Every structure is written in structure tokens, then in C-alpha cells.
Amino acid sequence: MSVDLRGRATHVRELMDDPQADEEMLGRTYQRFGAVNAVVSRPGRLYRQDIRPRAAARRIRILDIGAGGGDLCRLLVRRLRRDGLEADVTALDADERAIRWASAHDVGLGIRYRCALSSQLVEEGDRYDVVLSNHVLHHLDAGEFDAVLRDSQALTAPGGLVSHHDIARGRLAYTAFAGATWPLSRTLLAGSFIRVDGLRSIRRSYTARELAALAPSGWSVRSRLPARLELRWEAPRAGT
Ligand SMILES: C[S@@+](CC[C@H](N)C(=O)[O-])C[C@H]1O[C@@H](n2cnc3c(N)ncnc32)[C@H](O)[C@@H]1O
């Protein structure tokens, strides 16, 4: 029977969100996120279009909300270093298991790790040039979604950018992910939650139209290939 993708399957829970989840499988899941994201999330475009230009002007401050195993933070620091650019990168996650794993795999990149909600950083008066997330929006309930957007804006310095990335729910995304991960389920992805949670993530995700309907005034939704969404807000420059 084919999976119903007409609406968000918010009742479906991802295995990695279970506080009792097997720690070894969770660790393997964090470890595989980098390879999966390289294919599905294509972070190179975010780097080239939004991060590198800002980093050329100043030592850029980046916040990754829901950083998981920290693979996006590590990729950004490596690319910035390769281009001779400096950054202060913060990996934030509400799950202490993620922060523990990510900080143990920092490999000398100097990322700052915080186990907290974004509201705590707002209280502390933090400011960033780029606030981003990847595969987090679909995890959030309505209250958490509003809070993350509100906090993202509060945490963004004048002229800065908020860029939340996620999957666009759809038949093509579901079928392509199911087909691509099936042959890998006994090898590369064995002993991880990647395949089951990836399929559940697609079911929980938004379509572009659903996300646009939830986006507050001033935010925009962009559709990207392959089956990607970006929810974006740009902070006004100082004095405007
Ligand atoms: C699917 S993982 C994505 C990890 C990483 N961003 C990536 O793309 O590989 C989602 C992460 O978001 C975290 N998360 C969910 N809600 C959060 C919140 N309100 N604040 C911070 N982190 C949150 C979860 O703990 C989890 O580690």
C-alpha cells in the first residue's frame, strides 16, 4: 500500500527523538548525516551564495539550530578555512546526546557546542550574522515552530540572514529516498536510524504551499532541487 503524503504525518515519531533510543545506533546516525546531507541538502549552495560573501566582509558568526551531529558546522568551518576566512560557529541542539556526540567529533575545528533552546541564547543576548537550520522545522510542533522563528529573528544581527532548510514533502522525494537507501540499508546505513527516520521525516515535512501559509510577514519560502525548501528572513541593515 502506498504511503499517504497528502498531509503532514505529525503523529509519526522519528526513532532518534526517542530518549531511550539505542546510543550506538544514534551515534551511527549522527555519523552518517554528513554523507546523506551532502547528497540531499547540498550545503555548498548555502555556503557560496550566503555565507562566503558575508564572511569576506568580517569574521562571521554562524548559529546552527538543531545541529545534530554537527556535520553542517564542520563542513562550513572547513570551507571557510579553505578560503582563508574566519568564523565563530555555534552548534546548538536541545538534545544533550547530539551535543555530546558532536563535541566529541569536533576534530580540532573549534566549534562552540551548546545544549539549549534558542530562547536561552536570546536571553543571553547572543547575535549572529547567519542563523540556520537543516532538517529541524519538520520536528517542531506549532508552538516550537513559532518560537524558533521568533528566536531566529531576535538572534540575527543587522544585515544578517536566517535560513532554515528542510525537505519538501512529495511523492518524488519519498520514492527517491526509499529507492536510494534500500540497497544501502545492509551496508552504509546498517545499524543507524537514517532510512526509517528519513522516510518519516519526509512524511512529517511541509510542502512549499504549507510552509508559505505558516511563514510570518517578511519571511519567504524558496523551493530548491532536489525536493528542498528554504524558509528565509533577512534582517534590515543598521540605520534602515
Ligand atoms: C534530523 S536532526 C538534524 C540534524 C542536523 N541539522 C542535520 O541536518 O544533520 C534534528 C535535530 O534537531 C534537534 N531539535 C529539535 N527541536 C529542536 C529545538 N527546538 N531546538 C534545538 N534543537 C532541536 C534534535 O534534537 C535533532 O538533533
Automatic annotation (TrEMBL):
The keyword Magnesium does not apply. It comes from Microbacterium sufflavum. The keyword Mitochondrion does not apply. Keywords: Methyltransferase, S-adenosyl-L-methionine, Transferase. One of its GO terms (molecular function) is methyltransferase activity. Gene3D superfamilies: Vaccinia Virus protein VP39. GO terms for biological process: methylation. NCBIfam families: PRK06202.1 (NF004851). This is Methyltransferase domain-containing protein. Pfam families: Methyltransf_23 (PF13489).
